[in-house]
């Protein structure tokens, strides 16, 4: 198999893992493509939510808008995956799955890039927008450094 076919096979496998883009979640994916994290925000109570939903889980209002958020948060938990579970991730093993608590409130599960050896609970993180193997931009996070804050 050629390198091009290998890459195409990996991309196709990876694409199958991504959620379908629908009219309801398109603002999220469009935001990532433009380098910003967009979340639904309830017009009634101001609660941010992720993933998208038709009603606010806090007040049950169906009125909302999509708003760009800071992309900053805190690392609450993580696991380094060594075991092979999905062939789409063979090229990146081991990889880290992280539970991030966004500054705006909702948690999000993602991965970290440039992972240091000494991870700790509550480290500050920032959004990183990486081109995926498909045509979509993928949200990942990086540990925020003092240089990032400057």
From TrEMBL:
<dbReference type="Pfam" id="PF01796">
    <property type="entry name" value="OB_ChsH2_C"/>
</dbReference>
<dbReference type="InterPro" id="IPR022002">
    <property type="entry name" value="ChsH2_Znr"/>
</dbReference>
<feature type="domain" description="ChsH2 rubredoxin-like zinc ribbon">
    <location>
        <begin position="29"/>
        <end position="64"/>
    </location>
</feature>
<protein>
    <recommendedName>
        <fullName>DUF35 domain-containing protein</fullName>
    </recommendedName>
</protein>
<dbReference type="InterPro" id="IPR002878">
    <property type="entry name" value="ChsH2_C"/>
</dbReference>
<dbReference type="InterPro" id="IPR052513">
    <property type="entry name" value="Thioester_dehydratase-like"/>
</dbReference>
<dbReference type="InterPro" id="IPR012340">
    <property type="entry name" value="NA-bd_OB-fold"/>
</dbReference>
<dbReference type="Pfam" id="PF12172">
    <property type="entry name" value="zf-ChsH2"/>
</dbReference>
<feature type="domain" description="ChsH2 C-terminal OB-fold">
    <location>
        <begin position="66"/>
        <end position="130"/>
    </location>
</feature>
């Amino acid at each position: 198999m050629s390198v091009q076919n290998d890459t195409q096979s990996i991309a196709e496998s990876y694409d199958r893992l991504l959620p379908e883009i629908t009219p309801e979640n398109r603002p999220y994916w469009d935001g990532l493509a433009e380098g910003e994290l967009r979340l639904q925000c309830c017009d009634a109570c101001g609660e941010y939510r992720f993933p998208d939903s038709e009603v606010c889980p806090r007040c049950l209002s169906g009125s909302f808008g999509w708003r760009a958020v800071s992309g900053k948060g805190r690392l609450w938990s993580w696991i380094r995956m060594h075991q092979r579970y999905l062939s789409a991730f063979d090229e990146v093993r081991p990889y880290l799955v992280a539970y991030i608590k966004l500054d705006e409130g909702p948690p999000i599960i993602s991965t970290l890039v440039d992972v240091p050896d000494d991870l700790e609970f509550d480290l500050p993180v920032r959004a990183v927008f990486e081109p995926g193997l498909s045509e979509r931009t993928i949200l990942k996070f990086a540990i925020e450094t003092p240089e990032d804050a400057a």
